[in-house]
């Protein structure tokens, strides 16, 4: 009988703490159903099941810390007989011990930490310990409390770990390209005039769509480095770097962005940004990205030199829209331009292909009505 | 009667000695009864048979002198003048006891009587006596410290250390070894290579003599001689009082270590019977006198028992009282 | 201020006490002609004479008991036992007499006696001359036990102890006699009740006394270099133990390492640790750690003796283990 | 609607994108885009929130009138006093 296992929700995730089950034993689940909520360093994340069937038995209880890959539930497939699992006494079976890999101190909390958590009304279940032997200590509680009001602290650790790994392992190369955005912006302004306020679009959507479409021609930038080799992705799932109000950033993906219309993409982006900022992202949205798009133009930076988010192999950046003298049809004219940039993994591609990929994005932006 | 000096064997004094010994005997007999009734608990070491020693020795010292005794000290305390009431209340463990009930039978202390225990570690009192005498010497006080212990103590290191110190420093200590022949259940022949204990003391250069501890007059005479010598020479003196206890080491023991015949033989030398007979023979004691003495003693002991019975128990809240004395005055803080 | 040593501070305290109170006298083995086994009383015989600087035979039970008797008799004796190792021969007098007489006499008699003794290991004196039995004495109600670890305390604790109506046992760690430093000209009596914060810190409380204090201070310096700020508490008084100072520190740092030259089992460190768990459990962020002497009679070779005793490195290691991933 | 009610509406719309907003610390005459680190997505959501709360259409060209509390109150007062264009 297939097991539902703790998914890996990020390259640096080792374990998660089950917050709650959203499906009960006996309930039918379809592929993509949210089955549980798991607390990670990034926050509470809904995790999906990819195995259609009926939940036969839950193997971990809320509050328990579960290592990535450890079984969490048994799911009886279609047509599979109930009770096929070799566990007739399952309901009476004791709660399985946490995986040994978590060490003897897993679940231990110092007295001071326990008291402080009570004072702060903090749930200890979600905490990872940094005290002696991995016990949860006062500092862990204080940090968690600070994260609650300022999630940046934990996220900073996660970002730091991922970026350090990226810089350590991925041989980056960088390219930049200035794009005449005037046609696209004019088209967008005209379009927005026709649209009620709730349906207006931001130019970022055009950029995102242009990247997604360009990837059709340059698949070596869309996929993940895994098992010592590049694994291209059929789906085009650009992750969108969203800065969080309290600091930090998260890059949830918009799956199949190349197949969405601009209004659909805008709606998806709005929804994603909102959920990223209030919490409530789905696990697949954090782990499915095949490339990342980042834009720092709002802050006025002209160009971005981004760092690839492993295990992806490329990231496209956009700077600020700036009005510059530009030669149009042999004459100098003021035009709104934007600098696009690419950081890509040299193990997978070369600058030559990278430059052509950027040029393809530029070409798409010249014809906004075809986006 | 004045301390030290000669013994005046007039009728009044002899009747007094008799009465003192009888007081101790009757007091302890009552103690045994009260112990059996559960009123007195803990260890109770009776002095019955040895009364001549306490009574005789106490005649030789004055109120300024000090007494350091052992856990078999009821006789010493009574003969020293500690009230039967306060002593009995101590046996009961009542607040009115001479040691506020904190000591019980084995730990009678009385500042007014300069009575320094009631020391229940065999040999433990000897160094204290040396120190008390040292203090007197350093303070220029012409006082004697009487240190009473049993022959069992003579096997302890503290005995030898103390005799050596007292002799070395010429301290005014009268060591009185009440040799009742048994260190608990071990006969002196089985625990001493030299059973003539006087010779131990003499080896330290201490003037020493043995005396019949079953004869109150002999003890008094010897004790007066000894204290006079201590005062004159400013040096210790050692008396070995050869005596016998008629009862068990503590309240009850099977007495496997000695024969009934031996006990009976010693009882023939009961110091009270002996003095009683002598006084009758001499025409000093009329049967009415003895009845009157017994009546007075019985009344005193009844009164003591009633007093103890009516006494108060220390409130448990005062448990930690008198563990340490409060410091004298606020101290300067080192950090200041 | 003037430069002096721990030994000289002890001597100054003795001289001061002898000069101030005619009831005070010093008694012990080789305190007079020899000048004291650790030379603390050197010169005092000439100054105060043989009555008040009194050499004794090797009779620990005898002269300690005599000290108790003299205290009962109105004097203020200072009894020097050469070392804690020999104090075992006087243990009966200290425990059964000095500690009990006030209580079992119903408060009638005080024993204003001071007993001084050298303690501790660290000088390759092997198993019979390297004991640390401070904890044994601190176990006993009815006596006070102090451990001067600094020049100030060596100078100032004695007079306060003499004024105290109770028996006070002063432990002088033998490795401290050569400790040098400055002492204010007017240095005098100090309290013998309270612990003292010798170094302030926020991350962990190192609780030590006597000779171990200096090891704890060294460890604190090393920890500081690694970013861990240790607070060092000098217990000073081993009975009574100043709970308030200890708990205030632990409530601040949330971690404690107790350093004690006694053996771990049944040690004074065990007592301090137990008090912390009794009184500050909910403030603890890590288990209380102890750095004690290994459970072995102290061996003669230096490397083995060093290995047996608490050392700054061991204190550092134990402390870092408590810090988890914060150190 | 009174100016105070309008001000409340603006702040409520703003709080929907910047929940940590501290009214006291906000300068009413200065652009809150910088003060609150509002990006274009936030701003769009803020405008949509105003639109939904007050049921008025806000042309894109008018969005520049909504970047300070004072401007926004003035703009909305104007807009609400006109007959709606829709």
- Roughly what is the average pLDDT of chain A, rounded to an integer? 83
Q: Give the tally of structural domains of chain B.
A: 1
Tally of separate helices of chain B: 11
Q: Hey, roughly how much beta strand do the residues of chain B contain?
A: 5-15%
Mean of pLDDT of chain B: 94
Helix content of chain B: 40-55%
Q: What is the N-to-C succession of helices and strands of chain A?
A: EEEEEEEEHHHEHHEEEEEHHEEEEH
Output the structural class of chain B.
alpha/beta
Whole-number tally of structural domains of chain A: 3
Our count of helices of chain A gives 8
Give start-end ranges of low-pLDDT stretches of chain B.
none
User: What's the alpha carbon Rg of chain B, rounded to whole Å?
Assistant: 20 Å
The CATH topology assignment of chain B is Rossmann fold
Count the strands of chain A?
18
Indicate the radius of gyration of chain A in whole angstroms.
24 Å
- CATH fourth-tier homologous superfamily of chain B: Thiamin diphosphate (ThDP)-binding fold, Pyr/PP domains
Quaternary state of the chains:
heterotetramer
As for the CATH topology of the largest domain in chain A, it is: Chloramphenicol Acetyltransferase
Main sheet: strand order of chain B: 2-3-1-4-5-9-8
């Amino acid at each position: 009988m297939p097991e539902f296992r703790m998914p890996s929700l990020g390259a640096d995730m080792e374990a998660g703490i089950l917050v709650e089950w959203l499906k009960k034993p006996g309930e039918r689940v379809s592929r993509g159903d949210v089955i549980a909520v798991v607390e990670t360093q990034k926050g509470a994340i809904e995790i999906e099941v990819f195995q259609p069937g009926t939940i036969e038995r839950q193997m971990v209880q809320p509050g328990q810390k579960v290592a990535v890959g450890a079984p969490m539930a048994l799911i009886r497939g279609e047509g599979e007989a109930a009770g096929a699992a070799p566990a007739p006494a399952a309901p009476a079976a004791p709660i399985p011990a946490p995986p040994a890999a978590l060490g003897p101190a897993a679940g231990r909390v110092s007295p001071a930490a326990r008291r402080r958590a009570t004072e702060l009304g903090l749930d200890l279940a979600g905490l990872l310990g940094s005290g002696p032997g991995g016990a949860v200590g006062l500092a862990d509680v204080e940090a968690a409390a600070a994260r609650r009001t300022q999630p940046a602290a934990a996220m900073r650790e996660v970002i730091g770990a991922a970026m350090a790994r990226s810089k350590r392992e991925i041989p980056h190369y960088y390219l930049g390209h200035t794009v005449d955005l005037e046609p696209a912006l004019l088209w967008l302004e005209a379009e927005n005039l026709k649209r009620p306020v709730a349906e207006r679009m931001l130019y970022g959507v055009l950029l995102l769509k242009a990247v997604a479409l360009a990837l059709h021609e340059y698949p070596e930038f869309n996929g993940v480095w895994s098992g010592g080799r590049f694994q291209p992705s059929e789906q085009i799932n650009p992750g969108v770097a969203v800065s969080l109000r309290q600091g930090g950033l998260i890059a949830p993906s918009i799956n199949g962005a190349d197949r969405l219309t601009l209004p659909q993409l805008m709606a998806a982006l709005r929804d994603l940004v909102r959920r990223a900022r209030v919490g409530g992202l789905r696990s697949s949205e954090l782990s499915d990205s095949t490339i990342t798009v980042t834009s720092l133009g709002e802050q006025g930076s002209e160009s971005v030199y981004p760092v690839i988010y492993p295990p992806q192999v490329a990231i496209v950046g956009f700077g600020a829209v700036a009005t510059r003298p530009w030669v149009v049809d042999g004459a100098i004219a003021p035009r709104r331009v934007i600098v696009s940039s690419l950081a890509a993994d040299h193990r997978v591609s070369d600058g030559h292909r990278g430059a052509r990929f950027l040029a393809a994005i530029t070409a798409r932006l010249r014809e906004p009505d075809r986006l | 009667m004045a301390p030290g000096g000669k013994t005046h064997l007039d009728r009044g004094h002899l009747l007094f000695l008799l009465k003192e010994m009888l007081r101790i005997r009757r007091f302890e007999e009552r103690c045994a009864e009260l112990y059996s009734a559960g009123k007195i608990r803990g260890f109770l070491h009776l002095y019955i048979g040895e009364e001549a020693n306490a009574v005789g020795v106490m005649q030789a010292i004055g109120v300024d002198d000090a007494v350091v005794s052992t856990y078999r000290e009821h006789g010493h305390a009574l003969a020293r003048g500690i009230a039967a009431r306060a002593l009995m209340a101590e046996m009961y463990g009542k607040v009115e006891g001479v040691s506020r009930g904190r000591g019980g039978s084995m730990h009678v202390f009385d500042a007014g009587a300069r009575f320094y225990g009631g020391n229940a570690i065999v040999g433990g009192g000897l160094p204290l006596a040396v120190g008390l005498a040292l203090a007197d010497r350093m303070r220029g006080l012409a006082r004697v410290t009487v240190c009473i212990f049993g022959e069992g103590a003579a096997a302890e290191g503290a005995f030898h250390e103390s005799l050596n110190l007292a002799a070395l420093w010429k301290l005014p200590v009268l060591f009185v070894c009440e040799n009742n022949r048994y260190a608990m259940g071990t006969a002196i022949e089985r625990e001493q290579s030299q059973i003539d204990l006087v010779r131990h003391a003499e080896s330290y250069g201490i003037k020493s003599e043995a005396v019949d501890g079953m004869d109150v007059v002999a003890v008094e005479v010897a004790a007066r001689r000894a204290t006079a010598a201590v005062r004159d020479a400013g040096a210790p003196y050692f008396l070995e009082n050869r005596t016998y206890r008629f009862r068990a080491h503590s309240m009850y023991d099977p007495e496997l270590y000695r024969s009934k015949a031996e006990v009976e033989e010693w009882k023939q030398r009961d110091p009270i019977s002996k003095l009683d007979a002598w006084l009758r023979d001499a025409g000093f004691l009329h049967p009415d006198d003895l009845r009157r003495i017994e009546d007075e003693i019985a009344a005193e002991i009844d009164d003591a028992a009633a007093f103890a019975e009516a006494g108060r128990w220390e409130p448990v809240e005062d448990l930690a009282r008198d563990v340490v004395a409060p410091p004298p005055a606020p101290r300067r803080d080192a950090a200041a | 201020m003037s430069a002096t040593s721990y030994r000289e501070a002890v001597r100054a305290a003795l001289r001061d006490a002898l000069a101030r109170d005619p009831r005070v006298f010093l008694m012990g083995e080789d305190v007079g002609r020899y000048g004291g086994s650790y030379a603390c009383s050197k010169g005092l015989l000439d100054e105060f004479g043989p009555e008040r600087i009194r050499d004794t035979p090797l009779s620990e039970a005898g002269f300690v008991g005599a000290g108790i008797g003299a205290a009962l008799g109105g004097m203020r004796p200072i009894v020097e036992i050469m070392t804690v190792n020999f104090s075992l021969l006087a243990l009966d007098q200290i425990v059964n007499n000095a500690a009990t007489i006030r209580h079992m006499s119903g408060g009638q008699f005080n024993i204003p006696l001071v007993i001084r003794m050298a303690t501790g290991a660290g000088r390759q004196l092997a198993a019979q001359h390297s004991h640390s039995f401070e904890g044994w004495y601190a176990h006993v109600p009815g006596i006070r036990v102090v451990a001067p670890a600094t020049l100030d305390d060596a100078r100032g604790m004695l007079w306060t102890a003499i004024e105290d109506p109770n028996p006070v046992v002063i432990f002088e760690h033998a490795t401290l006699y050569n400790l040098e430093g400055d002492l204010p000209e007017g240095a005098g009596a100090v309290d013998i009740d309270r612990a003292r914060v010798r170094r302030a810190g926020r991350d962990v409380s190192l609780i030590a006394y006597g000779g171990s204090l200096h090891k704890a201070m060294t460890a604190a310096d090393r920890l500081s270099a690694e970013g861990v700020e240790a607070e060092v508490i000098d217990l000073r008084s081993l009975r009574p133990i100043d709970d308030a100072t200890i708990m205030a520190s632990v409530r601040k740092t949330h971690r404690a390492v107790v350093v004690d030259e006694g053996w771990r089992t049944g040690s004074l460190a065990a007592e301090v640790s137990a008090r912390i768990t009794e009184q500050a459990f909910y403030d603890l962020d890590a288990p209380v750690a102890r750095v004690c002497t290994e459970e072995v009679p102290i061996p003669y070779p230096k490397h083995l003796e060093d290995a047996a005793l608490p050392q700054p490195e061991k204190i550092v290691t134990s402390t870092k283990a408590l810090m988890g991933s914060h150190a | 609607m009174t100016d105070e009610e309008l001000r409340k509406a603006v702040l409520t719309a703003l709080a929907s994108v910047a929940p940590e907003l501290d009214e006291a610390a906000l300068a009413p005459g200065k652009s809150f885009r910088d003060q609150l680190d509002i990006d274009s997505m936030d701003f769009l959501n803020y405008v949509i929130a105003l639109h939904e709360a007050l049921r008025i259409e806000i042309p894109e060209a008018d969005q520049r009138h909504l970047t300070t509390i004072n401007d926004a109150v003035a703009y909305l007062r104007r807009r609400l006093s006109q007959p709606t264009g829709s």
